[in-house]
Amino acid sequence: MTARARLFRAPMTIASLVLVCLFGILAVVAPILWGEEALTARPTELLQGPSAEHLLGTDNLGRDLLLRTLVATRLSLGLAVLATLLAAVAGVLVGGLPAVLGGRVQRTFGAVINTWLAFPVLLLAMLVAILLGAGTTTAVLALVLTMTPSFARLAQTLASRVGGSEYLAAARMLGVSRRRQFTRYVLPNIAEPVIVNVTISIGGGLLALSSLSFLGVGVQPPDYDWGRLLKDGFAQVYNSPTAVIGPAVAVVLAGVAFGALGESLAGHLRGQDHGHTGGRRGPAPGPGPGSGPDGGQPSTPDTLLEVDGLSVAFPGEHGWVRPVRDVSLTIRAGEIVGVAGESGSGKSVTMMAIAQLSAPGAEVAARTLRFGDEDLTLLRGRALRGALTGVGVVFQDSLTALNPAMRVGAQLAEVPRTQRGVARRQANRDAVAALDAVAIPDPARRAGQFPHELSGGMRQRALIAMSQIGRPSLIIADEPTTALDVTVARRVMRLLRRECDRTGAAVLVSSHDIAVLGELCQRVLVMYAGRVVEDVPVDALRDPARLAHPYTRALVAALPDLDSDRDAPLATIPGEPPDPADPAPGCGFAARCALATDRCRAEVPELTGHRHGGRVACWHPQDREVVRS
Amino acid sequence: MSALDVTDLTVRFGRGAGALVAVDGVNLRVESGGVLGLVGESGSGKSTIARVVAGLRRPSAGTVTVDGRDVTGRRLPARERARLIQMIFQDPYSSLNPRMTVGETIEEALAAREEQDAAARRAGARELLDLVRLKATVAQAYPRQLSGGMRQRVAIARCLAVKPKVIVADEITSALDASVQGSVLNLLRDLRAELGLSMLFISHNLAVVRYLADRIAVMHHGRIVEEGPSDEIVHAPRHEYTATLVGAVPSLDNAGTDVLTRDEP
Q: Which residues of A, range 152-181, sit inside 8 Å of B by Cβ?
């Protein structure tokens, strides 16, 4: 099912769309069919109540109110649509053009829009009416004047994003004219939200126009719109209350229809942005048949974490997407284990699933997920949280992982306060001590600062301090050095290693750079297409001939180092990684592997113990010829 | 003969005493047909230099000349500047207009070369896609349908379409995975041999810069602290900061050793 098809299946969308279409048809045909009759005065039937002949009664000239309401659809909606469109065009020009005209123009226009937005709507409309005299043109103009700034603000916000984009910078460097920058780069990239906003605003515009007509400054007789009908009906509301029902219902229904249609379009756009468009089909795939708890690594008495058959699935556009499949790993107490893999390999999803921090909507399944003495698959709620106090997590982006509105020390102190009920003063002392332990200079002062006042490296160290303060036996660090400069990264790695040596905590740390993991870890798990393809002791990384999986070998060979031959091309891996939403059977790497056979394309190789002391999942391990010393 | 000369370039952010000097009197020279690598950590000012050289930002002082012509002034018409200098950006996900097909993007660049004939532009786009080792069918695709490596190839093709005198490449592989990075570097290396490109290649990754550049300039706190032939910079650094930088590059040769627990020098 495509995204568009799904949009048009949502009940609210269907209902609002049907209503909007009905109003559209009415606006076209009603004046043709009943235009004459709605004007026909019947002196004998003045101000009548509802009857079989006149369902909503008649007005003070004996004209049929139902027909008049239907015929008024064209003028009411037409004016609302016209005013909204004019306002949208003006707003997009005022808000969007500055993006291609440079910083000074942008600031000036921004100030204009802000001032404009501050004007009260009704006051502006009245002012226009006084200046120009009441009438249809006045009402539309007043509406355009009041709606333009909000469109301008929307366009300004959206366009400034385009204005700061590299593709616009690239266009500028090509010497693309400003006009073309606007029509070809800015407009298409801001169109969708603006269209949605137009749809929503038509409802509001209709209401505003009706109000103006109702107040007598809008449509003037002999023309009539719903607001005018309401005004006329209201004069006799005590004699014939039904006179206001028709136009009132019409205004509300049309307003709601356009509003709801816009909202469901907007909801759809938001869903697209986040990639969560629902569309589940069938139950989430479980861990599936596998080797069973005993097939992976045998668990030894000092095993701290044992994961077997871990799978994570997300609902995707075409059914379930499984970024992690049947992952098995163990970590001994105090061991530092790396997870290497490229984007989309499933390493982050694996680590977050172990830390029980999967994104909402994820289905996590495992045959075994044992941490210490606790089976995490059986625990819920408070018991699970209790078990997880033994796990510290270090996130990649230190800026978003810390609460920007809370002092660093207070955030650290939260951990002992909530986990062990430590008193505030003691917790604060612990926090400063933890910052001191990660070599943050002047820790007492830094504890009193906010995250943005610390440099990136210092924030990352504060995060490590935070993961340590709960005295965890396992630290899960997801790409802790990726966002950092090499010298800072080196310092953070050194710190992580030393802290673990000091406290005896084990670490599961991921990186896309296998060289980083080689220096930091004792063992590296190489992930590809959601599976662990090799589990290798790091000393084997020094000698690529000892690596068994073709992917690991390719990954190591592809990294340029300070001694790479500048006259030879770098080793590369042909092809593209597989799409997790559309996996091929067999080994995930088969499509890119020069050694793949039919068996590789049909059967998933099992992760089994290998002669290099680790494990490998490959039908053709490559270290065969090497004679081990 | 030099293709690009940066002379006494200074860029200040803000005014008065509180101004931040991002680039402080920098001199750089890219030889015709040569590749100069510029390395440094975040905040060192290397991306600011890239933006000034590319004409996206005006310097506070100093000049940038390409082929002897000043490209920082406003007097230079946009199209002429386009033919002197082009830039490849870091993030191939944001450097391509999501609402234009690959073909349209490249044809836009061909138009900058004053190629008026639509059929000739289409043929040119096909040639360029071929040059960056992409299939001709990619021309109909939108950026979102391509992988990061493919997008970066499209960005390279767009840049080559103008046949600029100098190319500024700012961290063009740092958003790519290791396996893809290699193929983009290989492509640039081949294109350089084929087309004799002159390039200012900016990266935080010393190994990547060393692979591609003839000479390397090391930047620290807005200044060039050392400049020299690539292998000398990497294997015999003279400045203390360069040595620190070289020492911090993670290496598989250190795998399983106690390099991290050893005391810092």
A: 165-176
